[in-house]
């Protein structure tokens, strides 16, 4: 059996560099076991109440023999920002990629347990992963605009969707929501790759927003950006909260504390895969965590 | 290797500084009341002068806290320690000011004898000083139970304050010529009452440090 890297970050590149999510074929060799009789966990409600947009119930992921995630049960609150933090190799990115079935693209990936999106089983037979990826968008570690114009980058998903309305309006609107419009309105026909790193990342966010997703997944969206561009993206994330459900994986604890409403801390034991230690209100996690493992991690004494 | 042993060491040093400042304040309270009752004006002057050292210490500690917050991005317990130390050091500085206030009253009284031999005031001072000592011990031992006890001891100080007030009132009613001297002693007992209140504030910060909970432990009478 071929062992695949556990997370995209382990290889230093994101899978989207070669395959865009919209073009990604649904892998047919993925084995999905749907745990019909798994009890609904009591502790999985969003910490601050409110409806859950995404729910995992006893979610485990294996890549071949390697257990990447073990028995994760948590609810992701709708229209809020949830940060996922934890040491390298704890399965943060794996978890994130379960939410829009990006792991389907990884051979040998086995997803067990349940993952509900708006209460519907995301892994049920008949669910089209491509359709899911339109509703649950993703922004990666490194900005990955297509080698096309700024305009075409944003219009890309809409065109694939067969959008027939006023494309100019849609592009402008998405760029405005991504706080990029003012900077690029005079060079919409220039290549997306001519923008600065921070602008490219906002372009990728505009591209994700253009197709009106319900959820935006962000895998360390600022790790390749300078501090100013990072703060710009953080401001943007806050402005999108309330409208979109955002899940952000980050190694930067201050960033998690700044941008998120809720924080989930994952860790991994040797050969055990990652598991959820604590999920709560961000303020509580960073000022008074309940679990001593969370305390040790966020105070920099472990991980 | 233990990560962040540098931060651990700096936090320990910070706490030691706060303890040292607490010791200075305790001493200042005791000396101020002792000088008042012995009518030792030189000693009262000394208490006033040495309050500058307490003030300086407070700024040192505050700057140290700010540096650690700016450079270490403390979280969770580390953050709570820093915030608690900031608050405690402000409370201590203020307690030092009350001790200085007592020394100033002593100077105001000049060569005059106290209205009466001091009994309850030294008792009150001892009690308030004991509360401060206990609050700082609770801080060192992360002991919320004794922090809670400090807060309930404040009632005893309030009772003594009541008692002193009633007694002084009687003096003033019987002989209006005593009003000035009685008022001096009333001010002193008021300063001591405030000192005890601030000891309970410190105890509350200790509870915050340990549990993350911020709450008033019980309404003080004054």
- Report the order of strands and helices of chain A: HEEEEHEEHEHHHHEHEHEEHH
Q: Helical segment tally of chain B?
A: 6
Q: Give, in spatial order, the strands making up the sheet with the most strands of chain A.
A: 7-8-9-4-10-11
Q: Could you give the distance between the termini of chain B?
A: 51 Å
Describe the sheet with the most strands of chain A.
6 strands, mixed
| Low-confidence parts of chain A | 1-43
Q: What is the number of helices of chain A?
A: 11
Main structural class of chain A: alpha/beta
Low-confidence stretches of chain B: none
- Give the chain pair forming the largest contact, with residue counts: A-B, 14 and 14 residues
What is the radius of gyration of chain A? Answer: 19 Å
Task: Set down the secondary structure blueprint.
The complex is a heterodimer of chains A (303) and B (222).
Chain A: H1 8-11, E1 31-33, E2 52-63, E3 66-77, E4 81-85, H2 92-98, E5 109-117, E6 120-121, H3 129-135, E7 136-139, H4 150-160, H5 167-177, H6 181-184, H7 197-210, E8 215-219, H8 227-240, E9 245-249, H9 253-259, E10 262-269, E11 273-281, H10 282-287, H11 292-298
Parallel strand pairs in A: 1-5, 4-9, 4-10, 7-8, 8-9
Antiparallel strand pairs in A: 2-3, 2-5, 5-6, 10-11
Helix pairs in contact in A: 4-5, 4-7, 5-7, 7-8
Chain B: H1 5-38, H2 41-72, H3 76-109, H4 120-141, H5 144-174, H6 179-211
Helix pairs in contact in B: 1-2, 1-3, 1-4, 2-3, 3-6, 4-5, 4-6, 5-6
């Amino acid at each position: 059996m071929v062992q695949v890297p556990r997370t995209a970050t382990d290889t230093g590149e994101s899978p989207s560099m070669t395959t865009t999510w919209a073009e990604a074929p649904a892998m047919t060799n993925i084995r999905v076991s749907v745990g019909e009789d798994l009890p609904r966990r009591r502790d999985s409600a969003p910490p601050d109440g409110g409806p859950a947009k995404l729910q995992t119930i006893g979610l485990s992921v294996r890549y071949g023999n390697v257990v990447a995630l073990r028995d994760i049960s948590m609810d992701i609150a709708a229209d809020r920002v949830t940060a996922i933090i934890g040491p390298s190799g704890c399965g943060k990115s794996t978890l994130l990629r379960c939410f829009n079935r990006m792991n389907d693209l990884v051979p040998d990936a086995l997803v067990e347990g349940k993952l509900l999106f708006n209460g519907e089983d995301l892994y049920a037979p008949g669910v089209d992963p491509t359709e899911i990826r339109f509703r649950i968008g993703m922004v990666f570690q490194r900005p990955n605009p297509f080698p096309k114009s700024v305009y075409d980058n944003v219009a890309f998903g809409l065109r694939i969707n067969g959008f027939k309305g006023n494309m100019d309006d849609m592009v402008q609107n998405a760029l405005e929501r991504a706080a990029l419009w003012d900077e690029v309105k005079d060079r919409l026909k220039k290549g997306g790759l001519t923008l600065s790193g921070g602008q490219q990342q906002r372009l990728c966010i505009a591209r994700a927003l253009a197709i009106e997703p319900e959820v935006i997944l962000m895998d360390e969206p600022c790790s390749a950006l300078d501090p100013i561009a990072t703060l710009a993206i953080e401001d943007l994330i806050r402005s999108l909260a309330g409208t979109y459900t955002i899940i952000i994986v980050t190694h930067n604890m201050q960033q998690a504390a700044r941008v998120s409403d809720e924080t989930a801390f994952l860790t991994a034991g040797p050969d055990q895969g990652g598991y959820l230690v604590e999920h709560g209100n961000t303020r509580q996690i960073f000022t008074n965590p309940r679990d001593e493992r969370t305390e040790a991690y966020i105070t920099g004494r472990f991980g | 290797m233990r990560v962040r042993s540098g931060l651990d060491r700096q936090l320990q040093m910070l706490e030691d500084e706060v303890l040292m400042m607490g010791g200075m304040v305790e001493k200042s309270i005791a000396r101020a009341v002792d000088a008042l009752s012995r009518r030792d004006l030189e000693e009262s002057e000394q208490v006033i002068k040495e309050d500058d050292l307490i003030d300086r210490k407070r700024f040192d500690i505050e700057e140290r806290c700010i540096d650690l917050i700016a450079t270490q991005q403390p979280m969770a317990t580390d953050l709570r320690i820093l915030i608690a130390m900031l608050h405690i050091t402000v409370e201590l500085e203020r307690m030092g000011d009350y001790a200085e206030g007592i020394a100033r009253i002593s100077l105001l009284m000049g060569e005059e004898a106290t209205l009466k031999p001091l009994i309850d005031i030294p008792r009150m001072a001892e009690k308030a000083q004991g509360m401060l000592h206990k609050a700082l011990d609770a801080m060192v031992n992360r002991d919320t139970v004794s922090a809670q006890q400090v807060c309930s001891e404040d009632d005893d100080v309030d009772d003594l304050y009541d008692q002193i007030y009633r007694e002084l009132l009687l003096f003033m009613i019987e002989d209006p010529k005593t009003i000035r001297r009685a008022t001096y002693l009333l001010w002193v007992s008021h300063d001591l009452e405030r000192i005890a209140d601030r000891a309970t504030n410190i105890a509350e910060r200790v509870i915050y440090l340990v549990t993350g909970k911020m709450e008033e432990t019980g309404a003080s009478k004054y």
